[in-house]
Structures are given as structure tokens and as C-alpha cells.
Task: structure prediction
Amino acid sequence: MSKPELKVAIIGSGPSGFYVADALINSGISVEITLLEKLPCPYGLIRYGVAPDHQKLKRIANTLDTIAEHPSVTFLGNVELGKDISLEEIKLNYHVIVFCNGMPDSISLGIDGEQLVGVSPCNDLIGWYNGHPDYQEQEFDFEHDAAVVIGHGNVAIDICRILSKSIDELRSSDIPENALEVLSKKKLKRVHMVGRRGPVQAKFTTKELHELGKLSNCNVSLDPIHLNLKSACQQELDDTSNIVVQKNYKVMQSYASNFSELNDKSKTQISIDFMLNPKCFTGDKQLSSVLFEQTYLEGTPFNQTCKSLEGLIEMPCGLVFTSVGFRGTLLENLPVNEPKRTLTNQNSKLLGSDGKTVEGLYAAGWVKRGPQGVIGTNRECAQNTVDNILKDSPTLLETSVEGKAGLLTMLNKKNRRYVTFEDWKVIDNKEVENGLVLGKPREKFVTVEEMLACL
Ligand code: NAP
Result:
């Protein structure tokens, strides 16, 4: 007798969704997996979050293809949960639903002036220059001479790099032509990356921090005063567990030695500024400056928060990108933990509003553990989710469900034009072909209509 097949729907086809599928395939159980995706294209964060000039990292998509092409896996794109299909409808067809829908929204600072023209949350810019269909209406004026990026994480570094690279350097990325045209008007001469705490608390990884210093015709500098550490920061730096920060500190020492070149107008100046907490944005309709409070740190090593000093520092600029983290979206009344909006879960199992686990519902990736870690972190997280699914599978298999066949019947009844993986490959090939003539890795279609039109 054949083993009963666990029918699993995965919501979201970013790295986490693929890694959950992979862990299920490798678990040895008999499984049928449907990978549901809102857009016609797979890969989520890899296609639309990883910086367009980090093509090597984007090549992870090739490895994910082998998962999508496994006989147990079906990719169904252009199917949005809550719009084209409800959670209740999916539940009718599957034993297990795993939410891997990521965290698409930027956290806002909630300070005065955030609505001014020129102030944007980082995902507006990232989505736009990565060709995400939901962000193509965004408008940016790069003809200002100064931009401020708020936050000291890798996303802030990505943005500083894209803002500082020359248009010729950007042409070899997969930034779509419409965005390249706007970026070609770029006149930025100063880019400030501003953090509210010090060099030891910055969340960069060393590779990314180091890469910033390699950009042609740019000077990356920081005020050496910030490297004179107070006792708690020195203890934090010296801690043997803090290897990344120790490496970052060395890179920062080299940037401190560039401080004297800060006024060299022949180069784009990238300045890393510390101990400044954004207080408000000023301007009349259009942003003209950011006012910051200077800060000091209070607390014990690894637990130091910033407190504000009196007086404000003004930083004139025409553009601000806030890069202070991400949060999830509210979906189908599922309970979330504010402010990050992770799905409320216990051992990857979703909790209902009564605090009890809901049978068959799980989460993996950022929506489970918050917006941290590199892409590889999601593999471990996905394995942990699948381990918990496997423990529950004997009980879950007691119910008989139709799986993919049932879902397809529903989608067909609704006349929904879903996109299969073979369809995606047609779109993919066309994008690569269009890119080839432009000397780029690909020229992305930036609307869903364009993607569907080539099928
Ligand atoms: P992040 O690493 O958490 O950094 C967020 C930054 O925002 C921190 O400096 C934080 O300062 C600051 N911040 C938060 N709230 C603030 C506020 N109210 N006012 C001022 N500053 C505030 O987040 P991220 O840069 O968005 O990155 C998310 C994850 O993606 C990270 O794990 C990152 O490594 C990963 N990522 C990796 C790559 C790569 O590997 N190439 C590229 C991009 C992103 P505090 O520390 O003071 O809170």
C-alpha cells in the first residue's frame, strides 16, 4: 500500500518558501507541495530585495529552480491569498499551510515631515529599482546634491551603494531601463548614512561594509572621534563572541583615515554618521533637511540604548531613505505580534486569537522570526518548521484532502490565469534575451500585464 501523501500549500515563493519545500522533499515522507505566489514570478526577496548589483547572490535562483522542478512540487504564480483565493478555500484542500510571505513593508519612523516629497521608506526605492510591479509608480528626483539614509544595517548600505555608483557601473546590473533613465540624472555628491547608536552597535556585515569602500570615485569616511570608545562599548567590542563587529571596526578605522578628504568635491562623499536620532524632516512640501538629536548610550554591554542630548543638528538634503527595518502585512485575520507583525506562533505553529495552536498552519522565514539574518539563515529556519510539521503529520493525515487537484478546480472555476513554472521559464527566457541586447543580465518586465503578455 502506498504511503498517505501529505498535501502542503506554501504561501510565498521567496527563499523561505523554497527551503520549506526542499526540507519536505528531503524528509522522506510522501508529500505533494504547492508553492503559491502572488506575482507571476518566483524567488521573492532574491528577485526584488537583493540589490540589483549583487548578481552573484541573485544566482541562488538557479539552485531554487531544481526545487521547483521536483516532481512533488507545483509552482502556481499570479495567485494572491486573500484576493484570488481565501485561506478557508486553501484549508479545504490541504493538510498543511506554511506562511512564507515575508515582510514587505518598511517600518516608518513616525516623526514630523515623513510625508514630505523626498522622504521615502527604503522598500519604495528598493522595489522601484528592482522592477517590482507594486513600486513602479514611485517617483524619485536624484538631481539633489545630498541624500540621507537613516539606519545602520545592510539595507542602508545597499541603498548608499546604488545612490553612489556611477550610471555606467549601474548599467551592468539588472535595474530596469525606466529606472536607469531616472538614475542617469543623478547629481548626488553627498550621501550620509546615519545611525542613532555607535560603530559597535551598527548591524552591518563586514563584506558589505568593505564593499562600500571599493566604489570608484567615492570617498567613504567617518569622524575618528566615534572610534574612541567608552568603557561599555570597548567591552562589547572586545567580547570574543563579537567577531563581525571586530572586523567592522577595522574597516571603520580605515574609513576614519579618509576623514580629511571629506571636502574633496571631485568625489562622491559617503559619510557614516553616528549617535544621531532623527527628530523631524523639514521643508515646505519638498524636503530640505533632517533635524537630528545627538545621542549618548546608556546601559550595559550588548544592552545599550540611546538617550537624547539637548539641541538639534541640521543636515540639509533633498532626499531621505528610511531604512530602519521591515514589518509583515495583516493577512486573513491571522494574529500578529506588533510592531514587527510576525505571525504569532509557537514552535512554528500559528496561534489563534485564543492563544491556542491552529491545526495545520505554520510559518517560516521573516514572518516567523522577524526581519533578520542573511538568505542562508532561512534554510535552517525552514528545516525547523518542517521538523515540527513532521511531528504533527500522523494526526494531520487523518483527514482526507484533494491537494493541488482541488485547488486547481477552484482556480479554474474562478477563471484565474495562474502561472506555472513552465510559464515562468518562458517569461524568464524573454527577460534574459531582452537583457542580452542591452548588455545586462536581464531586462525585467515591470508589470504583471507585460509578464502575462509574453505567455
Ligand atoms: P537591521 O540590520 O535590523 O538594521 C536596522 C537599522 O535601523 C539599525 O541600525 C537600527 O538601529 C536602525 N533603527 C531601527 N529603528 C530606528 C529608529 N526608530 N530610529 C533610528 N534608527 C533606527 O535591518 P535591515 O538593514 O533592514 O536588514 C534586515 C536584514 O536583512 C538584516 O539581517 C540584514 O543583514 C539582511 N540583509 C542582508 C544583506 C546582504 O547580506 N547583502 C543585504 C540587505 C539586508 P538600532 O540598532 O539602534 O536599533
In short: The pocket of NAP is lined by residues 109, 150-156, 158, 195-197, 201, 203, 205, 208, 278, 323-326, 371-374 (CB under 6 Å).
